[in-house]
Amino acid sequence: MNSFCDPMIDLNDIAVTYGAEDQTKSALLSIRLSIESGEWIAIVGSNGCGKSTLAKVIAGLIRPSSGHMICHAESSPAVQLVFQNPETQIVRETVYEDICFGLENFGIPQERIELRAMDALRRVGLDGRKYDRTATLSGGQKQLLNIAGCLALNPSVYVFDESTSMLDPLSRQSVLHVVRELHRQGRTIVWITQLLDELAWCDRVIGMEEGTIVFDGSKQSFFYGDEASWDRSAPNPCDRLGFVPPFTVQTARVLLASGYALRPLPVSPDELSKAVGAL
């Protein structure tokens, strides 16, 4: 896990309201959140809780109704967003043309475009499909192409808004592999999901409900509550938000309730295996 000391993004009393006059609806309410450089935060919550709105605020696609955001990134663009639907961001007919589109829009010199485009395609495993029509790609390959488009621009922060939710398991693992590599390279990741097994790789969990942050802490605290006084019968943030924990966590909870001291508290299958093996 990376160590953090420098803020990358500060959100100060962010509110987003839709509509006009007496027909307004609040999507975000007084959000205060600091994201450190190199951190992987996961944002979870039920549909309509404000996760996607928060993603768009961080990516600069929505202007807050009140409050302000400070981004300390030196790169330009500072933030890039990968949407849920792989079709959303594809605008050109071929793989190579599509990845060049963003580079051209950001004024990258022509002599550097091919190098950056091909490097990004190589990193997601699509360099051999440079001239393929985007319509022939699978859903997972389309999402990898979207990520490659972001990679080519080299932002400091990557925001993924449920980017694996429409993918099959194999494609989902391909996307997660690329994102984990980005994190190892020190990039800041904002990962929005309802697939709680994906929290295994994050550094910190943000739980949202009705436009507000109701939890901000470690993934272990999210799934198990207070580690120092863990009680199977006590509510924890995961249960309170109405989520079913991953099978790994369910198994670990049963073992803990039976008197087995699992340390550290496992979230991934590998962590469970190691914790059990150490008993």
Explain what this protein looks like in three dimensions:
The protein has a domain at 228-277. It has helices spanning 51-58, 95-105, 110-123, 139-153, 169-184, 219-224, 237-240, 247-257, 269-277, and strands at residues 7-18, 25-36, 40-44, 66-71, 79-82, 157-161, 188-192, 204-209, 212-217. It is an alpha/beta fold and 279 residues long. Helix 2 (95-105) runs parallel beside helix 4, helix 3 (110-123) crosses helix 4 and helix 4 (139-153) runs parallel beside helix 5. The strands form 2 sheets. Strands 5-6-7-3-8-9 form a 6-stranded mixed β-sheet, sandwiched between helices. Strands 2-1-4 form a 3-stranded antiparallel β-sheet, with helices on one face. It is globular. A hairpin with a 6-residue loop joins strand 1 and strand 2 (25-36). The longest helix has 16 residues, at 169-184.
Task: Provide the descriptors you would attach to this structure in a database record.
279 residues; 9 helices; six-stranded mixed sheet; globular; 9 strands; membrane; Vitamin B12 import ATP-binding protein BtuD; cell membrane; three-stranded antiparallel sheet
Chain-wise SSE layout:
Blueprint: E1 7-18, E2 25-36, E3 40-44, H1 51-58, E4 66-71, E5 79-82, H2 95-105, H3 110-123, H4 139-153, E6 157-161, H5 169-184, E7 188-192, E8 204-209, E9 212-217, H6 219-224, H7 237-240, H8 247-257, H9 269-277
Protein name: Vitamin B12 import ATP-binding protein BtuD
Membrane topology: Peripheral membrane protein
Domain ABC transporter: 9-235
